[in-house]
Each structure stands twice: as C-alpha cells, then as structure tokens.
Amino acid sequence: MFVDLLSDTVTRPTEGMLRAMMKAEVGDDVFGEDPTVNALEAKCAEMFGHEAALFCPSGTMSNQIALRVHTRPLDEVICDEMSHIYQYEVGGYAVNSGLALQLLRTPNGILSADLVEAAIRPRYDWLPRSALVVVENTCNRGGGSVYPLETLCQIRAVCQKHGLLLHIDGARIFNALVACGGTAAQVGVLADSLSVCLSKGLGAPVGSVLIGSRAFITEARRVRKVMGGGMRQAGYLAAAGIYALEHHIERLHEDHLHAQQLAKALAEMPWVERITSPETNIVMFDLKPPLTAAIFLEKLLEHGVRAASFGPRTVRLVTHLNVSPEGVKHAIKTFCRLRF
Ligand code: TLP
Question: What is the third-level CATH fold of 15-247?
Fold first, then answer.
C-alpha cells in the first residue's frame, strides 16, 4: 500500500471530475470567450461576496498578481514569517513588484491586529511605505492553523484605520471555513482580495482563483498576461474547479478527522518531540534529536508512506481526498513499527 501525505496538491481528478472536464464548453479565455472559465469566475466572486474573479494557473501566480496590483515599488507588505509569499514564492515579491516584506513572528502563523498595527510604519521619506497586509488562511507552515473570524475583522479594522489593503492567501480557505464554520462571504468581504486554490484540498488538477473588485480584477488580467498566465481553452480546467466547488467542500471534514487520527498516534511515538494539534488537514511535528527529517522520511517511504520535510527535524503530513481511512490506518501502523 502507498499513502501519499506529501501534500494535498498530489490528488488525481475523480471520475466525476474527469467527466465534467470532458464535457466542458470552451472558448479562448484571453478574449474572455471561455464560458466555463467565465462561469467559474462568476461563481467564486459571488461566493466570496466580491464583484469579479480571475482564473489563474497557480496559487503562486494569483498571490504575485495581487501583490503587484495592490502596491507600487518601494512599498512594504506586512506578513508572518511563515507566509507562503515569503517562504516559497522564490522571492517573487522583490522581482515582480519591487517590494520589501516586514516579517512578523507568531507561534502558528496567525497574526493579531495589535501585531499588525505595531508594524505599520510612519510616513517618512526614508522608510518603505506600509501598503498591504497578507494573511494566510489556513497557514501552511503554521500546521494548517485557522484565523478566527473575529481576528480577521480586527485586522481589517486596523488596515482601514491606516489606509492599508488586505489580501488573503486562501490556498486552503475552504479547510478554514469547514473548521471554523464561517461562510465564504463572511471572510471574503473582509479582504480587498483573496487567492483561492482549487488544486489543493479541493482536488482539481490545476488552478487558483483571484477574487476582488471589478477594478482590481481588470488590472489583475493585465498582470496575469504579462506573467504569461493568459490561457486559451482553459474551460477544461475551470470545469474541474466548478466540479470541486460543488462536490469536494463538504468532505473536507474527513481530511481533518484523518489529520487528528494521525496526530493522536504520533503523540504516542517515542521519537516525536513536539506536535502541533491539527485544526485542519495538516500535521506538523518535530523529531527528537539526533533523528533527522531526511532519515525519518526515507524510512517512512520504505514502508509506503510519503511525507514532506519542513525543516531539519520538522515533518509535515497532509491529508486529502486520495487518503482513505485504510491509508490512515496503514500510516499509523507504520509509525508504530518504526524504531530509531
Ligand atoms: N503550497 C505547497 C508548497 O509550495 C509548500 C504545499 O505543498 O503546501 N499559498 C499557500 C498557503 C500554499 O500552501 C501554496 C502551495 C501556494 C500558495 C501556492 O500554490 P501553487 O502551488 O498553486 O503555486
């Protein structure tokens, strides 16, 4: 048996999703003529309480477009040091948009309004201009941690008070919503823009959607083009996204349950030093020295379980729709068998 806990990006389209893709009506989306892309964009905009949306090839591109449209060179973006835009987007904020980041430190990647407010710079010629706050919900490196709605409201208020914009990297926003019980619109209206991934927990093969005001999306379309992200008959992919939004949101609680089962078993293992209690579909844990992530992952893989290294002694497991209850049992049995 092989259980792939590397990421929720590894999912394969289901039969139903493939059928929806095959049947999709398509057109040239660079001319705005793909009816399925248009339908996906309209659906996402409405869900999150915004005017418009833009289908993008990846979450990295939709985040990068948001940074570009919301800012000017020499501006500064306030975010957690665990943020994907800082850790895993190749420093694109500097190259694509000429930005600096101000990194805040939290235990689990969840910023507070007080931290954000304290980081906003006064307006002097010699300082970067604080322009944008980016929050990641759920926070990947934070172990799939979720922003309470109240915290987002407070951060929104601070942004408004100081004239900053707010972008949500919602690569796993539906995991957050399923865990905290809020609606997409409740969260959506708090942000100036959101990037929502279809290719993670929702199980679509490709694609993210950037959501915001009509004016923001009009500019975002231009930036998507300059980044090489204008796609033609993208409706085949958008159809997978629509299918995922209609069929794969409610089931996310199963992934969360699986993550809890894995975490519970890991907490008993003598080689685990620390584990963050999972709020969604991510389990992050540290190994006891001298055991390293590299050695641990190699042993795990020999037993047919794949996971990711997130530091010299830090390991991440992600549950998703291709991880079955049997797969979880197999992973737990493997943990029990490992001796270091
Ligand atoms: N995250 C990937 C890796 O890049 C770490 C993963 O396996 O989790 N925002 C967040 C919060 C993400 O976790 C990711 C992908 C992205 C953006 C980027 O999405 P893609 O991979 O579509 O560019």
Answer: Aspartate Aminotransferase; domain 2 (3.40.640)
